[in-house]
Protein 1
Amino acid sequence: MIAGCPGCGRRHAWPGAVPERCPACGGGPLHEDPEAPIPEAELAGVAEVDARRLQALLETWAAETPCRPAALDAAALARDATRAWWPVWLADVDVRGAWTAQAGLVEDVESTIEELQGGRWVTRRVRRPELRHVPRLGTVDRRYDNLVVPALPAPPSLLSTPRIGVYEADGAPWLLPEIDGEARAAPLEQAIVAAVREDLVRAMECRDVRDLDLKREPTPAFWTFLLVPVWVTRWTDEDGKVQAVVVNAVTGSIAGRRQGSRRQARARLWQGLGFALLTVFGAVALGAVGLLVPIVLPLAVLALLVAIVPAGWGVGQLQAVTTFNRAEAARWTPSAPD
Amino acid sequence: MSWTPPAGFVPAPSKVPGIEVYAPGQAAAETRPTCPRCGAPAGFDPARGRFGCSRCDWTEAAGAASDGPGTFTREALREGQRGWGATRKLVHCDGCGAEVLLPEGTIATVCTFCASAQLRAGAAEEGLRPHGVLPFVLTPAEAKQKARVWLGRGWQNPKDLDRATVERLQGVYLPFWRFSASVEARWRARVGYVHRETVRDHRGHQHVRETVRWRNEDGEVRERYADVLVSGTEDVPEALLARLFPAQMEAIVPYQPELIADFVARAFVRPLAEAWEDGRGRMREQAEEACRRTIHGDHVEAFAMRAAFADERWEYVLLPVYIASYGYQDKPWLLLVNGRTGEVVGPKPVAWARVLLAMALCLVPGVLGLIVPPVGLVLLGLGLLAMIWIGWGAWQSERGAA
């Protein structure tokens, strides 16, 4: 049975009874669509991440968050996690065409530093590696098998499936493809260009390949529908927004947005500034004593210097959370995590 | 799939089956280029700015691929790319020591540089292949016309110089090293600032007293230097060449053997490493000047500077020059014409009698003015300066430096 979530818009195929709540966002109730056709799964990734390992992975993932909020708890995430299948297309295609690119070659170059001292120039020679891009072109005539083409917008790490077997229904729902039919052409071209680029780097033994332009003959692609086993869970951030977390059950890679707690960071900032203020008071007191007993004066100066430490720590906490949250926001969109 | 690589690309190694790689380069052509339509000898036609056939109306745009300017790798400094891409005959002149590369089939009777007939054939040349060529635009007839106009110019030169015959005008591609680099220069110095203050002496008179206040200062300058040209030949005076180039360097096209098929091409004799020393020295001096310009003080002492070079690039280019000689009073004179701009340089005979007369005339107002001493002395001074200027100009003209 196909059912859609009014909250996140995702549609799932449920082999059994449709649950009340969406496994991804926790919204509901799910709208059933008995008429919608269910695509036939041909292959499936072999799950290797069980519930226990899932918690360990989530713990590592969440632990990287500075000022981790209480809701971003690995045990809670693992408890709410449900098994699902993430749809992926695999394409087999013959690539024949011509390419042009700039190959990045690393060269060991000789450079110089000139110093003018006392009216005389002294030359010092230095060697350093330098990346130089040079024009290259040629042809490609190769078959590429199992090119991964997303069926749902997702980061590449989530689509990786080193071990593939035959799909066997296990009661877990599938997420339905949103990229299908003709819409697969553009991501397929991207996958082909990425594969050719990788081969060109190996072929020319260069550091990188840029400005790759591939003009290939139109050849048919053979598609296979693959399901990647995933764990889907969620947590609620400080703004009350539900953040979906998807764990690839084959590789263990995690796609989901983390957020450091701004509240905690602010609290730590005030703590740090409070300690710094107390130390400054202490320094002033020592300074006053120092007027009578001069030997105490260096201690007052030392106390002033020590005050920098808690103040810096507090500012550092806030800075770390702000930077981390910005980086996560930049690479995460609800449709393309990671 | 039918696909052929564009002109100027040759197969390069590939480590992956099914992937063919082509890189800029030239397959060694053992014969002179021919017209693809009629088979007649083909070459670059300066008048049309394209390759053309000597018999039919076939033409093709000039242009090839290139890896671009080279870096200073150990291999580049040692040997670089080898081979001109076409067999060219090496001729050695026992008169001036010049080595000239001639197109295959060309028979040279006199040296392009010294007009000597003591030519000796050498082995076929296999040297560093040029990166780029600045093709000729001027035809020999146009170059000759420019030379005639140039000969007729200048009051200090003999009047009958415009009747001198321009002989043995020959288009030659001269070798140049073209350098570019970024320089990050840091300097420090003691900079003195002059302060003027008005003081009164014990008699109450006001005086302006100057004092210098010294400060330790430092600064940084980042500059990119491009088109620093160092001649690869020692047969043509570099001072003359420096007045012809750089010019129109943006019109340099990647080297193709066909481009220079109908011209004499001079092989470089100054190796890359030696030329780079020279080019780097010039950049270093320009960086020093740039640093000194940022100092606004009145005096500078203990100026020290550190220039770190980065992104250094070199190119071996062939630049078009018509080399000719003209005879005047049984003496041969060298003449160079820029094959693109038509600028003419070279030493010129001087009509010294006329120059000396002009110099003497410069002194006349001063001598007459001696009757009124203060004005006369000023006029005499000015006359002496004018005399020196005229004499210097004439001497430079005779040396070709004017």
Protein 2
Amino acid sequence: MSANLLKHRTLLRVLQSGWYPLVFQAIAGAVFTLIVFQLLLGPESAHDNLGTALTWVLWWPLIPILFVLLGRFWCAVCPFGALSDLVQKFVGNVRPVPVFLKKYGIWIIDGLFILITWADHVWGIVENPWGSGVLLLLLTTGVVVSGAVWQRRAWCRYLCFLGGLSGNYARAGMVELRTNAAICDECKARAVCYTGNEKGPGCPMFEYPRRLDSNAPCVLCGACVKTCPNNSIEIRVRPPTKELWFIRKPKFEEAFLAVVIMGIVFVQNITMLEIWQPMLAGLQRLTQTTSYAVNFTVTFVIALAIPVAMLAVAALVAGKLNGQTTILNFARFGYAIIPLDIAGHIAHNLYHLLAEGKAVVFTALPLIGQPMPSGSTALVGTPAIQMLQYLLLALGVLGSLFTAYRIARSHDGAKAWRSFAPYGVLVSVLGLINVGLFLLPMATRM
Amino acid sequence: MTPYPKRRRLQCLLSLGILLLAVLTASCAQSSPAATGSRSPAETGAANSAASMEAVHVSYLDLTANITDLRTRVTDWQKGDDNGLNIAKEKVERIQAILASVTWPSLLMPTAGAAYAAVAPMAKALAAQDKPAAQAAAETFGAASHDLTHAFYGDWLPTLKGKSFTAMAPHATYLDLSANLSDLQARVGQWQKGDESSLNIGKEKLDRVRVLAQHMASFKMLAKPLQSITAALPAVAAALDHKDLAAAQSALKPLSEGSHDLTHDFYEWMGKTTSANDPACIQAAYLDISRNMTDLRARLTQWQQGDEASLNIAQEKLDRMAAISGHTGWPVAMATAIGSTRATVEPIRHALKDKNVAQALTAVAPLATSSHDLTHAFYGDWLPKAYAPAQAAHGMTGMGNMPGPATGGQPAPTSGVVAFPAATPVAAHVDVEPHSSSAAGKQAAAVASPATKRAVIGGFGLVNGLVIATAAIFKAKTGKGRAVSGQGGQNS
């Protein structure tokens, strides 16, 4: 077992302080306000819009890295979470979350994630400040409704598309919040970590920390650190992906999200490559329509279906070898795709971060009365970026292979290689597809 | 009636306050369009209709080229070249067709109107073979063209900075950018030879390149060469400012490489894609293909005269011709001419491959007829009607936003912004699907009008305010939602 970071007094005091995560929320809230203002009322061109630069060039590429390093820490300081808390504090009706949401929340998240990605391509969100602004307004309304009606952070737990993504990524994260079972066994405090006390609220994510065995629902908000009277809460550093090796109750919908994200990474890459134009032209001939919505939807469905179908085939083959059902194999090993998801996601966005990073400064200068420079926005050259991308993909492939192997070993013991083999092939093929996509020249966002 | 407890009253008051704030936000958004940072349609004209910006751009290029040709032809005629008279008449007709075909944005209306005003006097002078009157009209055209160019690059184009391309290819912008890059290099060369006036013209060209490169930045397929070009500009500008010839020549090298890559990437993209059947696309394609046809013939002649380098350039020109003709959705009016142009491509290609000069010249001969037919089909049959459906859809007369038939002696517009109908989006572009990039499909939502923005932001403010107010009322009535009693926590 690794060391408990909360043994460091300073960190413990920070998390126990009422200022945490308030200070971070205030900073994030201020930046968020600026972003929304810029997106809705600032320059119409993404090229000149600070909101676009901060959101899609800086935040979106950094966020998966943050998930790997600090789990769902972002969700603790997210302005939407803070807004939900605020609305709930003043006008919240704190009704129980409907069973439907609890049961199908992850499917709603899957659907929302797919829908937003589709809408981005068809209606324009990322490259259109107004589109990005409207998306934030829609999310804001959802958060306000959720905070006004339901208990705790129902939005973050059951509805937020980024929450679903971060939950999956955070499973591979390097920091975990857990409790000391020995202390909790002796606890007489009547679950104040769940219900809250004078030191702070109960877990906003509907979790009973004592039973917490996953990073997915924990946002590192520190509420349980404040309320626990026995200092049972521990924050530990662990090897990346470790949680994925031992998931006791794999969920099909979470595995589905993991593999769908792979498809989304494909789509995001393909549509920003030069080959997209000839592909689109070919599709136009095939579908006999020049409607972008139709042709993109065809591409989108195919791109999402490919990894899902590949995982299904791998699960089918594995089922023949290990005697388990295809569904169980799909759910169990779908989590093994997460490291490659993260690598593909970061690698794709690394290009935007490093090749367009200066856009954040460039677009901010006009706000202080300075002219916008017209030079290159690149922080480093393309060869360096590509090298980092391949390195990340290599790490992602290795991580996914190792995770698949560990999952197989934890379930099938000596027969692990039989279960692993189909997934080894799957991960290798997905890795090769990713490498192929990253070999091609990519367009910029700004 | 039982009065609400003090705490609940406070909550209700707070909720009402939030609602009021939301309504205020909505009304503020409605009352301050300037806060949007966007220009009104009257200011940007077609700029706010991204659909027509390419139409305006390509028409500007076509117009200024024809005005230049017209002035040259009039001068030739003054010097005794009677053939120049007939060609000048053709040019006048083309200028009229171009001016009348598109909806000019308000920023360009005064200068476009000045050119339009010169059409009738020039036509009359040419018909009467009145050389002094033709010369005077040519000078008016020259001044109008000069002013139009300044208004175009100085006023209108910057308003489009960074705007996304819509249905049209960035063909017009590419043509403009590559021409200005070429001119810039030529001007520095002339300055090197002692022509001091070329220095200032070079600076102007540099400014235009800067504006055009920024305008084109949203076309992602050319991101790399555009970045190279943009990165090279400050050094060239500094060299020109300091009148440092050596530094200018040095700084031009990366610019030249960027320009080369731009051309290469552009035609490569063009070769892989097919365009929408859009008037602006067709107009840009016509300008480009006719230029390449002329260049090809010139290069073959030079090759015949012993310039071996011209062989490779001719092959490039031929490839571009093929790319443009395959890329564009040509209209029926131009189909025959384009068909005969295409028919020449393979024979010329074989001849060039075999390095057979005689065979190449034989193969290229029909191109002269094709080029001529294409030009007549373009200006005579297609252009006058090309934008008509869109104009009709906006209650216009097929004369763009010009006041009436130029040759009919209509008075010249003096203050175009006031005198002409407001610039109107060219509706024909709206239904045309994009063909440029993934961003193309996203552009349906790219430009929201200030009114739409006000309505959307206000609507969201109102909805959120209503949700909060409703929640507050329910909370006050049901008494739910209180914090955990006596514990200070928020969750029960």
Protein 3
Amino acid sequence: MRLTTALGLGSLAAVAAGLWLAIDSPPDALQGEFAKLIYVHVPSSWLAFLAFGVTLVASIGWLIRKNTWWDDVAASSAEIGVMFTALSLITGMLWGNEVWGVAWDWGDARLTSTAIMFFVYVGYLALRRAIPDPSLRADRSAVVGIAAFALVPVVYFSVNLFRTLHQTQSIRPDGSAMGSEFLLPLFVNLAAFTILYLSLLVARRRLAETERDRDVASDSDVTAPDLERIANE
Amino acid sequence: MSEPVVVLTYVLVFGTIGAYAAWLALRLRSRR
């Protein structure tokens, strides 16, 4: 079985288990059913951090090794990270609208810093499309991929540095503010989303590789009749 | 899951991820 198929099936099973536990979990005493949004909001945020962390490591890998595999991983992970940052923002807005009474507050440090992180990584993806030369594109986007990661700790610690609307972390090294009946579905969903991320990353990197091969073939002087002649020889 | 907003959010999240995965699978298949 190929790695993409195995990871795809594994992530489907893990997501199904996480979804079942989320549906089956009890309502919160204060937030009622709305508390169940944590099982998609927190894993989406975690994946955004993880994906941008992988982009950081792969960007460093490209600068050291100059192997296109690293550049493909950096780009693929950033694209997936942008999607999960968007999902984190949207799920947070829908949740906030119900429990805070407002969907968005520019005065809130977590919301605003997450929005800035989202737009910086959208800029990273736009930069990649703007530079046609593969080597130059990889070099410049690696620098942005490394520098942009500085936003991740800012977003994570924003709730501790600025006490605004968004709550602080529910799970910390010194203990959890959540009951065990909420922790199990949360951890299963965090694991399921992580497997899902790996599955998407492997597939997206493979696609990036095929796109790179196609670009190389189209840039060369070999024409289709040439290829046919070579194949027949 | 009795709140419509919660159901909508779950549909939105898994619909988006599913659409992205389907796009990836189609692109990969067409390039083989």
